[in-house]
Amino acid sequence: MLKYKVVEISTVTDEEIEGAVNSRVKEGWGFDGISFVVRESSKRPAMAFIFFTRDEP
Predict the structure, then answer these.
(1) Euclidean distance between CA atoms 48 and 51, whole angstroms
(2) For the chain, which has fewer Cβ within 10 Å, the N-terminal or C-terminal residue?
(3) In the chain, pLDDT over 90 holds for what percent of residues?
């Protein structure tokens, strides 16, 4: 069975994203994708959602 994990990042920096990805990959999750939430008033993302998957019996 394929399981999903979604991690919310509220401080969107390269260090925060790298830390979240590296820690979940160490736990056996595979990186699946990332989605950014952008406000109209700013080009910088306000939040990010990182998606991971893993096969479990």
Answers:
(1) 10
(2) C
(3) 89
Which band of pLDDT confidence, cut at 50, 70 and 90, is reported for residue 12?
very high
Strands 2-9 and 30-38: unpaired
Judge whether 23 and 42 are in contact, CB under 8 Å. Answer: no
Give me the residue spans of the domains in the chain. 2-43
| pLDDT greater than 90 at residue 43 | no
Annotate 1-57 with DSSP letters as a single string. -EEEEEEEESS--HHHHHHHHHHHHHTTPEEEEEEEEE-TT-SSEEEEEEEEEEE--
Q: What is the model's pTM?
A: 0.89
